[in-house]
Design a protein that fits this description.
- By secondary structure, the protein is an alpha/beta fold.
- The protein has a domain of 174 residues: Rossmann fold (3-Layer(aba) Sandwich).
- It contains nine helices and twelve strands.
- Strand 11 and strand 12 form a beta hairpin.
- Helix 5 packs parallel to helix 6.
- The longest helix has 15 residues.
- It binds adenosine-5'-triphosphate and magnesium ion.
- Magnesium ion binds next to helix 1.
Length: 259
């Protein structure tokens, strides 16, 4: 079993040393568990994922991130990926000049030592089966990474990377945004295929709808840079019905619904 612990995490952005975005996030995820993170716009959900993955624009000023007790903050970005962390981004970037397939094979082999690299045949076989699971046309593998991909294709491709790389922990930031109903089902099927004793995920979403397909074990609500409430799937249902105002009142946070 693996464990990802986030302890009292404080983060600010590079160019603004006055403003703290994360103000003490505490969160623990074990493999075998899927956690959902919900929260109003601008509360720091994507900042949390950026800090976990080591985006250099985000400065950790206090707190710890531990993967099986190892200090993640001391690791370079590529070391974090090799250690088993994966980020599916809210806005994945386009990388012209590198095909999707080459990118994934390089990423898989970066995690392996010289004697155990994945060969082309094994890679293509795996790629075929995962693309079939996600109903993706074969041609997507040979296109430049994310270049000209539609919003939904990018999200589906993030899940393809997830299935190919088989990380220990995945942080999936709004993988449901902009997806049509069929794509939502396909993406959920991909995440559910990863479920198991050796995999844990943190799924950032605004909508209960996704959680109908991927049932979370734990739901966290983030507001104003902190996890303010933790519960089971019923918490997401409550949010859907009531919005954030009532929960904010309960916890004693000043929060105003936008007009
Ligand atoms: N690189 C940056 N430069 C300046 N401000 C930033 C930067 N990144 C995040 N912020 C600010 O930090 C706050 C939190 O942003 P973040 O993207 O983490 O929110 P979020 O919870 O993911 O919101 P959403 O639900 O809209 O995706 C916002 O006010 C945002 O403007
Ligand atoms: Mg975000």
């Amino acid at each position: 079993m693996s464990i990802l612990e986030i302890k009292d995490l404080h983060v600010r952005v590079e160019d603004d040393d006055q403003r703290e975005i994360l103000k003490g996030v505490n969160l623990t995820i074990n493999t075998g568990e899927i956690h959902a993170i919900m929260g109003p716009n601008g509360t720091g959900k994507s900042t949390l994922s950026a800090a976990i993955m080591g985006n250099p624009h985000y400065i950790v000023t206090q707190g710890e991130i531990l993967l099986d007790g190892q200090d993640v903050l001391a690791m370079e970005v590529d070391e974090r990926a090799r250690a088993g962390l994966f980020l599916g981004m809210q806005y994945p970037s386009e990388i012209p000049g590198i095909t999707n397939a080459d990118f994934m094979r390089a990423a898989i082999n970066a995690k392996r030592d010289e004697d155990h690299k994945m060969g082309v045949m094994e890679f293509l076989k795996k790629l075929d089966s995962k693309m079939e699971l996600l109903n993706m046309p074969e041609a997507m593998a040979e296109r430049y990474l994310n270049e000209g991909f539609s919003g939904g294709e990018k999200k589906r491709n993030e899940i393809l990377q997830l299935l190919m790389l088989e990380p220990t922990f995945a942080i999936l930031d709004e993988i449901d945004s902009g997806l049509d109903i069929d794509a939502l089902k396909v993406v959920s099927k991909g995440v559910n295929a990863m479920r198991g004793a050796n995999f844990g995920a943190m799924i950032i979403t605004h909508y209960q709808r996704l959680l109908n397909y991927i049932t979370p074990d734990v739901v966290h609500i983030m507001m104003e840079g902190r996890v303010v409430k933790t519960g089971g799937p019923e918490l997401a249902k409550r949010l859907e019905a009531e919005g954030y105002v009532k929960i904010a009142e309960e916890i004693g946070i000043a929060y105003h619904e936008e007009a």
